Amino acid sequence: MIASGSRAGRAGPCCSQRQHSSQHHHDNYDNHDSHTAPPMDTEGKMSLFKTVPPNIVQSIRAFRVTELQQEAAHLQQHFLYAYCAEAVTKQQVLTTIATAFQFPRHFGKNFDALHDCLTDLTHKAGKQIGFVVVLEQLPNTQKFDKEARETLLDVFRDAADYWAEKKVPFRVFYSFQ
User: Fold this and answer.
1) What's the gap between Cα 111 and its chain centre?
2) Residue 109: C-alpha distances to residues 92, 113, 152 (Å)
3) Mean pLDDT of 117-145
4) Would you say 73 and 25 are in contact if contact means Cβ atoms under 8 Å apart?
5) Distance of CA 148 to CAs 1, 19, 59, 113, 169, Å?
6) Of 146, 70, 83, 80, which is closest to residue 118 (Cα–Cα)?
């Protein structure tokens, strides 16, 4: 089981390091297009993401966090995980994400600052190989209501669009309480 805030490591101010594996991986995966054949591993098995476009924000649904973490490692992509069940307010949700993703201390704890850390600072950290992001148990409270959740997910959608333009996979999976 993954502990709260755990991730693969750290590559820069806002992202985790790619996970390393002794297996060989597809060098062309970063160029994977949803209209081409799904990625295969060296043993010819289908990728866990065979039906998941490379740049998307979607409900975690049938995926398990451990499977997503293993797939990120298999694809040598950054795995970012935030467990938000303890958060009640927007500030607490953003603090949880900032802590889990190791954002800089000066992170502004607002949606614009979140967008900047997911794009600008991460991009400045060097060549990116892809991201698998999990936001688990986003709260459903009076101080973090449906509108706040949608705004948060819109920030991640904008980041997915940003990375799509750079041909870098950025998959976000979320769940609500």
Assistant:
1) 16
2) 9, 6, 12
3) 89
4) no
5) 28, 32, 16, 15, 25
6) 80
Helix (H) or strand (E) holding 163: helix 146-165
Q: How confident is the model at residue 42 (pLDDT cuts 50, 70, 90)?
A: very low
CA distance 164 to 177: 29
Give the DSSP per-residue string, 67-113. HHHHHHHHTT-EEEEEE-TT--SHHHHHHHHHHHTT--TT--SSHHH
Closest CA to 64 of 77, 41, 81: 81
The answer to whether 78 touches 129, Cβ cutoff 8 Å, is yes
Residue 61 contacts residue 68 (beta carbons within 8 Å): no
Instruction: Give Cα 167 to chain centroid, integer Å.
Output: 15
Mean pLDDT of 14-41: 36
pTM: 0.74
Q: What is the dihedral of CA 162, 126, 17, 14, to 10 degrees?
A: -60
CA 146 to chain centre: 21
| Count of helices and strands (H, E) across the chain | 5, 4
3-class secondary-structure state, position 174: strand
C-alpha distances (whole Å) from 15 to each of 88, 89, 105, 169, 174 are 24, 24, 14, 14, 18
What mean pLDDT, rounded, does the chain reach? 79
